[in-house]
Amino acid sequence: MYATQALTHLVPLAAEELDKNKVTPGVLGFLVFAALAVGVWALMKSMNRHMGRVNFEEAPDPDAVAAGPTGDTGKAASPGK
């Protein structure tokens, strides 16, 4: 008897034991989820490392420099008056 014939005889037995009301992702679903979680963790760790290396100094706004040191701070401090 060939292996494929033996498996075709076992398929109906497996179908009878299958509970159609119970559906679970199984081991493969867990492995895929775990792989995605490890990948996200690795990306977050890499992003934090790269963001720590960034040396960013914002250039002054030309409009703010032209307005002078007083600027519009008086208007923003008391919006109701």
Helix content estimate: 55-70%
Q: Mean pLDDT across all residues, rounded?
A: 77
Globally, the shape reads rod-shaped
Q: Count of helices?
A: 4
Main β-sheet: number of strands, strand sense, barrel status?
none
The arrangement of helices and strands along the chain is HHHH
How many β-strand runs? 0
Broad structural category: mainly alpha
Description:
- The protein has helices at residues 3-17, 26-53, 62-67, 73-77.
- The chain is mainly α.
- It is rod-shaped, with a radius of gyration of 32 Å.
Task: Chart the SSEs and their pairings.
Elements: H1 3-17, H2 26-53, H3 62-67, H4 73-77
Summarize the structure.
The protein has helices at residues 3-17, 26-53, 62-67, 73-77.
List keywords for this structure.
transmembrane helix; mainly alpha; single chain; about 80 residues; transmembrane; membrane; 4 helices
